[in-house]
């Protein structure tokens, strides 16, 4: 019990894992870079912004360890910490592409997005996820979860993208923290004061039994070092983000109305008979259904009236050379938590399924089909069964599919006529290389509902609204969001429910110009921090860190 | 949150950069950089408002005993004077080890 | 002389009359759960003295809820005697007009509300006691008319099993059963055969099965995960500068993280110092899980307990050499005997407090909170009636008086500032203000300066017993009071004088390295480590779960 990794702080954890005297910190406490967003909100910053980047050797293997400090602001990812991770991973990728093996490790101890910098957090996490997916083609990207905070929120999706996950029995993994589920869906859905329930559901042992983590080991530095070295040398990869058919088959056998016990779920998990899934294109029908901004624009852009799909919450169609895809409400869905258009277990995997099929079909083609993601996602699904099965894995599957499609050369445009919130947005929108939005005040774009964000950050709703009003980092509206520089284009004279030919043409033109803008451009997400607004105001800290990392890397 | 600034006349210039601590609940981090003055500066950001005189007392005692000279930056998330002292003595320890 | 016809059994007659009024709902001592309210309304009379069982852990919660619901037109002006006022309905009884006067020991969770009710005149305080005093008065001037207590099980004859959580049930029942009081017991279960008899049926008048088991809180459990480096530092100083120095053999640890840290340092730091077998083999203490590593490591010969601690049942059953365990395999706790042992048979008490004044008086009463005393003053005082000797006791004997005797070690461990950054060392205790507000005869001081022999802070140890004037005592306190207003009165010169006299010791004087005070020194760093040390026998309550 004496060589604990868990007991150490983030910096000590990184140093402890590396061979003696080989650790070298990049962009450390003396580089004078703190979050520019915390002090204006009266929050004490940390000199490393809660993310430690440490290069060194582990059993003589060149590694870079990214260690997140769970006790600073709950390990939340903001702009500075996020940019540190992204730029470190980028250099790691470059080195590996150049034939120099560097093994990336991420120590997760994080609640996900830092709510005080929510929009930066979401952007950063999607950029981190993009890097991990590309890196996996070269080296295993290993995740460690020693415990205390564990890995939650958007970063749980990131864990699901790792090649291999090693934890202690004090780790927890879940998309939505128990407090948030209780806030959004009530104590009957998830009683956040019931520690046994939490640990039995989200704890590492159950996660190991059902394929969400790979190894649960003793909380011992040497045990971690040996397990990591073995993972690297044996090039282990669980391909956790590509088990779409397995999970779609599993989900079909699950009764969403019944709260599964952990034992029931484990049994279900062990006896899945896997079969292939393919979702047919949406077809016109005579039956109007509940409308939404997402459905409205899917139907306008594809000209499919009353679009009907075999999976009622996921519409897709190939029209005039573009693949359109949207997640829509379904008021009678047997999963109650997706009835308003949230991204649930089935939605994430189904989107992944559609995109994977497209990647496969275009595999040998020189010109890849562009993808238009129509974004109207109020959130991810908040539910007990969802967490037990691992909804973060479903969202990771779609993140992975979109990222792999983009990296393979598919041009991906996200068109935002509706809400773009939280995990839903990460899974369905943020992996595109161009974002286009309507300038409509009904659009909410954020990491968490105001009610939950207020509860988690111990502020009143009023205080939260005051804090977010003029802070693009925490904006809930699209106009403020634009100030970050992440939008390619904000369409000013079309509203969310417009259906005139004029409006449709404006949107189509915007999509077309975004697609032509992508001609011969990088297939990554760099546009978001390389444009004029981002450089001048929206992502100043991001760019500063990227420069500094370039200087310090070698 | 409150920003505090202190200056103490000191006599023992440090030659190393030192960092200790974490901005965790009830804790703080200290960043120390060498300087060429004959005094130490302290820029403190603290999450607990209204403790300027307590800080002043803790720091006066410390610099009386150990007149380290350098520029200190402290990010504090509610550490008690006892914890502040402990972290300051850890700074001393790091300086000793690296000499 | 006395009248020939004087009735010398009037109290007995009165009791019999009351019992006769309730015969329709009593079936050979047993009363149905749904008749509880009617029973209390029949057996209790206005102005009665009623004892309601409720100590730190076990609460006669069914009976207290029932009493709070009786008709105040029938029952009023009760004089309640309660060792602990801990549940909301304990005070509802007063607010509902059922009772008016209260004698008690401890009011932790309700301390705020009780203050307010006193100042608004809803509640009149008889006195605030230590546990032992309150039990003692049950046999002198506070003999009860009715006692309401809790047991785990009863058999068909009415014998009681109180088992692990016997606590104060026997002493309360005895005070009524032999002085014409009515003994009413709530039981969680009625069985054919008890594991053992803790209280004979002869002493019991009424048994009611409660709607749910009595309330029980794991009050003494501290999760090692929350122990700080400063607590470890103070623990190391205490072990070197007090436990080792005075060869302490028997001890009581008050509740808290400071003492939990010491318990977890014994098998590590204590072993490094070679102290195993030399110090603290004997304990009077609740069976807190942080003792497990020291027990497993062979440090402890015997532990007697005031009460049980939730989750420790199986572990204790498997360690009958250490704990007081019945033939049935379950521990028997006893609060009254525990307090007696704590007062008379121990070398040392170690506790924490919320405020210490310039003289060394300490109190847990802070502004607006009348928390009472509990048992700490019994443990934390020098029993002048003590006559037996021990090495530690003798080590405090003044050398200049041929008739002098030894003294109990009474140790307070505090950080100079509390976690809300308020100074613990103060000019005046808040208790002085509370005395005026609550109209108390005495300032509610938990441990008096004259009884306090050592104070440990993160700065050092003050050996108060060595001071020979109040001025010197104050200087010793100031020297370890850090940058609190009191501490600022000290200076380097005074400090060094006190160090030279051995009245104050800094960590370096004790050869304690401040930077060695790391959490890695704890024998267990979290609850799961404790479970492992116990070989799976400790079963922590769910609220402490932090692993899968």
Automatic annotation (TrEMBL), chain A:
Q: Keywords, A to Z? A: Lyase, Transferase
Q: Which residues form the CoA carboxyltransferase N-terminal domain?
A: 1-248
Question: Could you name the domain of life of the organism this protein comes from?
Answer: Bacteria
Per the UniProt entry, what are the Gene Ontology biological process annotations, in alphabetical order? carbohydrate metabolic process; fatty acid biosynthetic process; malonyl-CoA biosynthetic process
The Enzyme Commission number assigned here is 4.1.1.88
Q: Offer one Pfam family short name for this entry.
A: Carboxyl_trans
Q: What class of enzyme is it?
A: lyase
GO function terms (MF aspect): acetyl-CoA carboxylase activity; carboxy-lyase activity; transferase activity
Protein name as annotated:
Biotin-independent malonate decarboxylase subunit beta
- Recite the lineage of the species: Bacteria, Bacillati, Bacillota, Bacilli, Lactobacillales
Automatic annotation (TrEMBL), chain B:
| Gene Ontology CC entries for this record | cytoplasm
Q: Where in the cell is it found?
A: Cytoplasm
Q: Which NCBIfam families match?
A: malonate_delta
Pfam families documented for this protein: ACP (PF06857)
Gene name per UniProt: mdcC
Mark the residues carrying the PTM O-(phosphoribosyl dephospho-coenzyme A)serine. Answer: 25
Q: What InterPro entries does the record point to?
A: Mal_deCO2ase/Cit_lyase_ACP, Malonate_deCO2ase_dsu
Q: Which residues cross the membrane?
A: none
Q: What is this protein called?
A: Malonate decarboxylase acyl carrier protein
**Primary localization class, coarse:** cytoplasm
Q: Which domain of life is it from?
A: Bacteria
The answer to whether the entry has keyword Phosphoprotein is yes
Q: Report keywords, A-Z.
A: Cytoplasm, Phosphoprotein
PTM annotation: Covalently binds the prosthetic group of malonate decarboxylase.
TrEMBL record, chain C:
Q: Name one GO molecular function term.
A: transferase activity
- Tell me the domain of life: Bacteria
Query: By its UniProt entry, which InterPro entries does this protein fall under?
Result: MadA, NagB/RpiA_transferase-like
One Pfam entry for this protein is Mal_decarbox_Al
| PANTHER family membership | ACETATE COA-TRANSFERASE YDIF, MALONATE DECARBOXYLASE ALPHA SUBUNIT
Q: Which NCBIfam families match?
A: mdcA
- What is the protein name for this chain? Malonate decarboxylase subunit alpha
Gene behind this protein: mdcA
């Amino acid at each position: 019990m004496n060589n604990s990794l868990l007991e150490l702080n983030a910096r000590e954890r990184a140093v402890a894992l590396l061979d003696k005297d080989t650790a070298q910190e990049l962009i450390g406490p003396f580089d004078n870079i703190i979050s520019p967003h915390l002090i204006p909100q009266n929050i004490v910053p940390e000199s490393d912004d809660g993310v430690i980047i440490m290069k060194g050797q582990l059993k003589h293997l060149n590694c870079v360890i990214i260690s997140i400090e769970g006790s600073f602001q709950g390990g939340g990812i903001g702009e500075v910490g996020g940019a540190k991770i992204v730029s470190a991973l980028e250099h790691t990728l470059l080195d590996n592409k150049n034939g120099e093996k560097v093994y990336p490790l991420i120590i997760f101890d994080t609640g996900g997005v830092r709510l005080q910098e929510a929009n930066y957090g979401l952007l950063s996490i999607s950029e981190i996820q993009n890097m991990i997916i590309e890196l996996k083609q070269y080296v295993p990207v290993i995740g460690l979860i020693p415990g205390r905070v564990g890995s939650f929120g958007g970063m749980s999706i990131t864990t699901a993208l790792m090649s291999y996950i090693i934890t202690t029995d004090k780790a927890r993994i879940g998309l939505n923290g128990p407090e948030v589920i209780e806030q959004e869906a009530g104590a009957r859905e998830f009683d956040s004061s019931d520690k046994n329930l939490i640990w039995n559901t989200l704890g590492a042992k159950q996660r190991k039994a059902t394929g969400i983590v790979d190894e649960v080991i003793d909380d011992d530095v040497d045990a971690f070092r040996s397990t990591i070295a073995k993972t690297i040398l044996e090039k282990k990869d669980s391909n956790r983000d590509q088990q779409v058919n397995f999970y779609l088959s599993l989900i079909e056998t699950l009764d969403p109305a019944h709260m599964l016990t952990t034992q029931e779920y484990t049994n279900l998990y062990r006896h899945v008979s896997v079969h292939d899934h393919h979702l047919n294109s949406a077809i016109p029908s005579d039956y109007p259904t509940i409308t939404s901004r997402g459905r409205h624009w899917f139907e306008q852009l594809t000209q499919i009236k009353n679009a009907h799909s075999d999976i009622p919450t996921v519409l897709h169609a190939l029209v005039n050379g573009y693949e359109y895809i949207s997640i829509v409400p379904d008021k009678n869905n047997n999963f109650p938590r997706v009835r308003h258009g949230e991204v649930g277990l089935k939605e994430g995997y189904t989107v992944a399924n559609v995109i994977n099929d497209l990647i496969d079909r275009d595999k040998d083609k020189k010109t890849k089909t562009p993808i238009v993601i129509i974004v109207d996602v109020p959130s991810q699904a908040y539910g007990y069964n969802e967490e037990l099965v691992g909804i973060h894995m479903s969202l990771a599957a779609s993140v992975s599919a979109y990222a792999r499609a983009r990296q393979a050369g598919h041009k991906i445009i996200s068109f935002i006529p509706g809400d773009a919130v939280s995990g839903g947005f990460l899974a369905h929108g943020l992996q595109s290389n161009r974002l286009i939005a309507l300038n409509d005040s009904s659009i909410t774009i954020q990491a968490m509902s105001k009610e939950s964000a207020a509860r988690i950050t111990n502020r009143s709703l009023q205080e939260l609204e005051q804090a977010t009003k003029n802070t693009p980092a925490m904006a809930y509206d699209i106009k403020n969001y634009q100030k970050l520089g992440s939008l390619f284009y904000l369409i000013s004279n079309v509203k969310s429910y417009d259906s005139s030919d004029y409006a449709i043409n404006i949107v189509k033109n915007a999509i077309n110009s975004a697609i032509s803008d992508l001609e011969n451009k990088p297939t990554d997400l760099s546009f978001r921090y390389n444009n004029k607004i981002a450089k001048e105001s929206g992502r100043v800290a991001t760019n500063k860190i990227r420069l500094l990392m370039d200087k310090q890397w070698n | 949150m409150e920003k505090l600034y202190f200056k103490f006349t000191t006599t023992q210039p440090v030659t190393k950069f030192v960092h200790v601590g974490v901005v965790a609940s009830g804790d703080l981090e200290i960043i120390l950089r060498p300087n060429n003055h004959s005094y130490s500066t302290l820029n403190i950001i603290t999450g607990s408002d209204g403790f300027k005189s307590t800080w002043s007392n803790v720091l006066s005692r410390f610099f009386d005993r150990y007149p380290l000279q350098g520029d200190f930056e402290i990010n504090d998330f509610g550490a008690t004077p006892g914890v502040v002292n402990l972290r300051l003595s850890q700074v001393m320890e790091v300086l000793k080890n690296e000499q | 002389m006395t009248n020939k016809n004087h009735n010398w059994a009037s109290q007995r007659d009165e009791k019999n009359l009351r019992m006769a009024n309730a015969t329709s709902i009593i079936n050979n001592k047993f009363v149905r759960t749904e008749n509880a309210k009617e029973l209390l309304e029949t057996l209790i009379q206005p102005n009665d003295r009623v004892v309601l069982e409720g100590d730190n852990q076990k609460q006669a919660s069914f009976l207290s809820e029932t009493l709070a619901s009786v008709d105040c037109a029938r029952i009023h002006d009760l004089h309640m005697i309660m060792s602990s006022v801990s549940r909301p309905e304990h005070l509802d009884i007063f607010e509902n007009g059922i009772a008016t006067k209260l004698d008690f020991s401890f009011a932790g969770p309700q301390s705020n509300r009780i203050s307010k009710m006193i100042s608004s005149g809803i509640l009149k305080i008889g006195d605030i006691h230590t546990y032992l005093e309150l039990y003692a008065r049950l046999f002198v001037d506070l003999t009860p008319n009715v006692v309401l207590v809790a047991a785990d099980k009863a058999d068909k004859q009415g014998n009681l099993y109180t088992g692990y959580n016997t606590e104060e049930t026997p002493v309360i029942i005895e005070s009524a059963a032999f002085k014409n009081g009515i003994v009413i017991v709530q039981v969680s279960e009625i069985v054919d055969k008890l594991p053992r008899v803790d209280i004979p049926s002869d002493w019991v008048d009424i048994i009611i099965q409660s709607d749910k088991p009595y309330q029980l809180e794991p009050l003494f459990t501290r999760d090692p995960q929350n122990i700080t480096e400063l607590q470890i530092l103070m623990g190391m100083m205490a072990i070197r500068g007090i436990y080792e120095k005075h060869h302490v053999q028997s001890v009581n640890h008050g509740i808290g993280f400071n003492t939990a840290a010491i318990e977890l340092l014994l098998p590590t730091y204590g072993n490094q110092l070679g102290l195993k077998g030399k110090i603290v083999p004997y304990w009077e203490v609740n069976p807190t899980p942080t003792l497990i590593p020291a027990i497993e490591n062979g440090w402890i010969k015997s532990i007697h307990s005031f009460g049980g601690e939730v989750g420790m049942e199986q572990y204790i059953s498997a360690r009958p050499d250490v704990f007081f365990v019945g033939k049935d395999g379950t521990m028997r706790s006893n609060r009254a005997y525990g307090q007696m042992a704590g007062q008379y048979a121990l070398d040392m008490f170690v506790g924490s407090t919320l405020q210490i004044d310039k003289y060394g008086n300490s109190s847990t009463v802070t502004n607006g909170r009348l928390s009472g005393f509990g048992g700490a003053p019994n443990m934390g005082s020098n029993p002048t009636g003590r006559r037996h000797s021990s090495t530690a006791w003798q080590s405090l004997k003044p050398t200049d008086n041929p008739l002098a005797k030894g003294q109990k070690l009474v140790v307070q461990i505090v950080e100079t500032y509390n976690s809300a950054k308020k100074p613990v060392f103060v000019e005046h205790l808040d208790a002085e203000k509370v005395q005026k507000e609550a109209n108390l005869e005495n300032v509610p001081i938990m441990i008096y300066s004259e009884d306090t022999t050592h104070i440990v802070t993160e700065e050092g140890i003050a050996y108060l017993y060595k001071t020979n004037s109040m001025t010197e005592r104050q200087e010793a306190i100031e020297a370890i009071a850090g940058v609190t207003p009191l501490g600022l009165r000290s200076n380097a010169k005074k400090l060094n004088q006190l160090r030279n006299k051995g009245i104050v010791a800094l960590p370096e004087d004790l050869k304690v390295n401040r930077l060695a005070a790391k959490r890695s020194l704890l024998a267990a760093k979290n609850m799961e480590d404790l479970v492992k040390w116990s070989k799976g026998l400790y079963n922590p309550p769910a609220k402490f779960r932090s692993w899968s």
